[in-house]
Every structure is written in structure tokens, then in C-alpha cells.
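Predict structure. Chain length: 482.
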Amino acid sequence: MSKSNLGLKKNVMACALALGMALPYCSAPSLKPETPNVILIFADDLGYADLSIYGSDSYQTPYLDRLAQEGVRFTDFYVSQPICSASRASLMTGSYANRIGLTGALGPRSNIGIHHQETTLGELFLRNGYRTALFGKWHLGKIPEFAPSKHGFDEFYGIPHSNDMWPFHPENPEAWPDLPLYNGEEVIAYNPDQTRFTTDLTQRSIDFIESAVRDDAKFFLYLPHPMPHVPLFVSSEREHGSGAGLYGDVVSEIDWSVGQIMQTLEEHDISKNTLVIFTSDNGPWLSYGNHAGSAKPLREGKGTVFEGGVRVPFIARWPNSIPTNIEVNTPAMTIDLFPTFADILNDKEPGLPIDGLSIKQLLTGSTDSSPQEAYYFYYNSNELHAIRSGKWKLHFPHSYRTMENQSPGADGLPGKYDYGVSTVSELYDLSVDVGEQNNVASHYPGVINRLTLLANEKRQELGDSLTDSEGIALRPPARFEN
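Prediction complete.
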């Protein structure tokens, strides 16, 4: 047996033993992996338990289930902040949102956005010879200097901010201007038919893939679906298809979209060397009741740094490099995706300091340890609310909103949050208490002291930004001053 084949056999055996699975379910990476195409699908307000592979029993998501079975599923994957723009800023740059001056959710009249000195995922792939496209929700600035075309995307079709920021808002419609639909830098419609969003974005994605295939070009496709963020809409073709109401229909249509894209990859024989990732920007918007998802058994949802607000589904498939049917329990975060893609591309071009680290080995089943040493920080606006290290998660005293003991809304109308609650110093062992119910702070003062020191270092490093009443940064972060 040749040395290369012997090494490959050892890799397969090690993979199987490490994962505790039978050999037939542990496929080996290619000996000569090519740089992959990359598709990043980003749902909006999708809860941790909103996919059947993550525990939903009211409807099925077969295509996403298959994606997980043919790749890797993370159980402890996080966003940096539990709200739209901040979460997307971290995804695009590999940095905590506070570092780059984007927290909260930008409104249509906001005059700030992603800074021109930042390197986005689009720019990372573009400088490596990829075609790039963004179809869906941007939410990193509306005015021309912040347009996706100025930040690394060859093609853009979608909306600049959330789909509820329009004159049909259920609570204060008079507060919002018309919602524009862009094709490139041109507005092609106002207040578009949202029942077509998922279908049209899927078709745009398919057309983009097929165009790249015809030209033998590598591509990066970023597909940030505007849903299941409220208001909920589904196409007539898939209405009532889930048997679980409108929310189930919307998630099922996103699952259908994944199936259509996977079918396109297979038809063009590029499935094996395409990395497909599916995740969400934060947890469910619980005040909307039956128009919101679920994070159970996690605590709370969107707008809080409890697990239900920041822990999200994460699935990845790349047959040339990711073994099948892996479950990863090691923590990771969206800030780690930028450096992971740079690692895959072997891109060593220097740039601004970022917070993420490559999880390529974690993603491909080569290791079970986090390059971050599992230190993750959870901010809400510009306030550090919690830190995780290994199995421990420490919440610092802070106020938060909750729907506990409140009446949720229904059919598109929200209920009222209780904003009069706050934490004390609370420590949870997530290995046995994923629902953050049993505060064990009094038993582990040493753990609290260690994590508090780490938190104070991070506070000093990131500093504080001036913000408005909604927590939106009013000036660029410190690294762009002078």
C-alpha cells in the first residue's frame, strides 16, 4: 500500500474512532481537495428548534435534514448579538459588532453602515477570483456608499433592511417609508409582493449558479432570506404545505429552496466541491406568538443573550472535505466564518484585526477543540451581557425583555414584552443545564472570577461607542479614527 493510501486509511480510522460512528458513515476527505464554491444561506429570526433535525415536530424540513446527514451539524453555534444588523456585521467581517461600530438594527433613515475600510466576505472571495452574489436582505446600510456593490458583491437583488420596515407595519405603519426592492443599485419596486420573496431569491440563486457553471467560474453565493422574520409570507404554490400554519409554511418553503439549490448543484456535477452552509441571524421573535419560531429547550429568544437569543442552527455540507453525519458540540460563532473561508482559500492577505479564528478543522471533523479556547462574548448593543468558556456561561447583571408570564401576539400582531426584569450574576453549566435554569454561581466563585477577568479585558479592548436611543452607533469605531 502506498504511503498516501496508508495515510488516507489512517485518517478514515481516526475519524471513525473520534466520532464514535461506524466506518461506512465516515467518508474521507479528497486527497487533492480543490478550492470549493461556497453558498451561505442565512435565515432571519429562525429559532434553534425550527428545523426537524433540531427538534421541530410540527412540520418537517427534509432537505435541511439531508444536508445535515450528508455533512456536519453544530449543536452549540452562536451569533455575536441577538439582533439583525449587529449579527450580520459580525458575519460579514469576522468581528464583534462593537469593534466595527454596528450594533442594533439599522432603520431605513439611518445614515450609517458598514465602513469602507472593512473587508467583507464578498470582498474576500472577489479578490480570490470568485464571482459573488447577494440575493436577499442586506441590512448593513442603505445609502449608496454602503450598497453591496461597494462591498464585494457583483450582483445584488433584494431589500436593504428588514421586511417589516414598511408602511404596513402592524403597530406603527406611519413610522416607516416604502420598502424598496433593489436590482443592483437600482430600485425596481416599492413595497414588493413578499409572497414571491423566497421563490424569486431561489430562482436568482439558481440562475447565478448556472451562469458561473457555463463560464467555468468559482462562485460565492450569499442568500440571506428575509424570512421567517415577520411579516410572514409564502408563495401560493407552497401555501398550506406544512400542515402547521403560516410559520410552518414559511420555514418549509425555505427548506424547499435549499432542496432546489442542492438539486441544481447535483445536475451540474458540482455538488461534491461546493461548501453549503445554513444558519440563522438570531433566535425567534417570541412576542409574535404563532408567527414566531421556537428555541426550546433554550431560554428566551431574539433580543436577549440567553441561549434562545444567540444559539442558532448551523449545518454545513462539503463532500470533498466534510465527512458525513457529524455532530459537533464544541462552541463556535459567526465571527469564525470569515477566517475559516480565508483558511480554505489560503488567503493570507493582511487586513484589519478581527475576532474570529478558523474552524476549518472543527468543520471537517479533524479536531474537537475550539481554536478560540471556547471564549465567546455576548453583547447586546454596547453592553457585555455574558461570556461562555467551555461548559460555563456567566451572565453579568443586566436588564432584559421577556415574554414569560406575558400573553404572546397572534396572526401578525405582537404581544407586549415585560422589560422590568434583570439578572444578577448568574453562572450556568450548559453541559447539564442548556435551559439556563439552575444558577450555580454560589458554588463556583473561582470560575466567576476567571470569567470576569476575561470579560473586563474584552470591555477594555472594545471600549464603548456613542449610541442613540435604539443602540445604534453614532460614530465609526476607534480603529477608524484619525
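Summary: Residues 378-480 form a domain with the Arylsulfatase, C-terminal domain fold (CATH 3.30.1120.10).
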